[in-house]
Amino acid sequence: MKAILFHQHGGLEVLEYAEFPTPQPGPGQVQVQIKAAAMNRLDIFVRNGWPGIKLEYPHIMGADGAGIISAIGDGVTQFNVGDRVVIDGNLSDGTCEFCLAGQDNMCLKWALLGETVRGTYAEYVVVPDRNVLKLPDYFPFDRAAAASLVFMTAWHSLITRGQLQAGESVLIVGAGGGVNTASIQIAKYAGAKVYVVGSNAEKLKRAETLGADVLIDRSQGEWSKAIFQLTQRRGVDVVVDNVGAGTMPLSMRAVRKGGRILTVGNTSGPKFEFDNRFIFTKHIALIGSTMGTRTDFATVMRLVFEGKFAPPIDATFALKEARRAHERLEHGEFFGKIILAP
Ligand SMILES: [Zn+2]
Q: Over the stretch 100-159, which tens digit does the pLDDT of each residue have?
């Protein structure tokens, strides 16, 4: 098969469009012919590498994908060759205490497709059958691939972990990015009042089309003060902060007493300081999570199929154009998912 490989970490130049042996499904696994793979910011980190990362080279990136089942392994009964499916990139063993409790995204052997295991930047990928979900006939591959990781992640954070309720107020820090745009839609769907702080008017306009109720332009002054004024000095019930450095102290100001701050990442860097007095004097719950469970995946994807959520797509590139696609992911001003179509 053709795939995008790299043999060492580095810049765009390490990405190669080349031949690689087509993976074959073992017991309980399915082989999926990829029709659309969606890119995530994580892919840049994987390509660049980090201290301690251990990969089997050549590596193939890609956590998100959708396609057609092209072969099945022994013991697979729920799927047939020809089924249209979307892939859940969370790999778990299905047997540890967390998996048995339905918390498979906390699996002791958890791994993410494309991060430490060869992923979807390829014509074919093999995954356990429990990691695919059938697509309705009418639903396009690119939308499914674009939705899966970010909507599952946002759903797990806001609904499963954050217990967001109708009538609550939510502040989302950042108007761009896949998880934030998914969070806006999910918070609105849950019946919350959605505040979004963004870096410019264009991004805020897009946030508004996704359902944001109150738009705050970051360039117009300290946004935690704006929230304070807009909420009659109360603060919001929930803050979604996936930025981190520079924003977390402001998020702690913007959240109400007894409120929750949700985080699934840190786009501005992993280490930052905050004043711990905010945590205890305001009774703040700081709630972290990553990815989502299989239940979250099935739940949120059903809503995506029903048209409740619209994953925006920025651009589609042929598989062999992966360097250009990565360049856009790394440097471009993009909105929505970048898709590779093998
Ligand atoms: Zn497990």
A: 999 999 999 999 999 999 999 999 999 999 999 999 999 999 999 999 999 999 999 999
Q: Separation of 28 CA from ligand 1 center, angstroms?
A: 16
Determine the 3-state secondary structure of 220 from DSSP. Answer: helix
User: Residue type for 175, please?
Assistant: A
Q: 100: CA distance to ligand 1 center in Å? A: 7
pLDDT at 333 > cutoff 90: no
Q: Give 327 Cα–ligand 1 centroid separation in angstroms.
A: 36
What would you measure as the largest C-alpha separation in the chain, in angstroms?
62
Centre of ligand 1 to C-alpha 105, Å, is 8
Cβ-contact 328, 315 below 8 angstroms:
yes
- What is the residue-wise DSSP string for 93-107? -S-SHHHHTT-GGG-
Query: Please, which residues have CB within 8 angstroms of residue 153's CB and are 6 or more apart in sequence?
Result: 179, 182, 264, 289, 290, 291, 292
Q: Report which DSSP code applies to 267.
A: T
| DSSP for residue 161 | I
Calculate how far, in angstroms, residue 180's C-alpha sits from the geometric centre of ligand 1: 28
Average pLDDT over residues 299-327: 96
Q: Return the pLDDT at 270.
A: 86
Residue 297: predicted pLDDT: 98
What separation in Å is there between the alpha carbon of 99 and the centre of ligand 1?
Answer: 4
- Ligand 1 centroid to residue 94 C-alpha, Å: 5
User: How confident is residue 306, by pLDDT bands cut at 50, 70 and 90?
Assistant: very high
Q: What is the mean pLDDT of residues 275-281?
A: 96
Residue 174's closest CA among 154, 149, 155, 191? 154
From CA 22, how far away is CA 245, in angstroms rounded?
A: 42
Ligand 1 centroid to Cα of residue 64, in Å, is: 21
* Cα(75)–Cα(71) distance, integer angstroms: 12
Interval between CA 286 and ligand 1 midpoint (Å) = 25
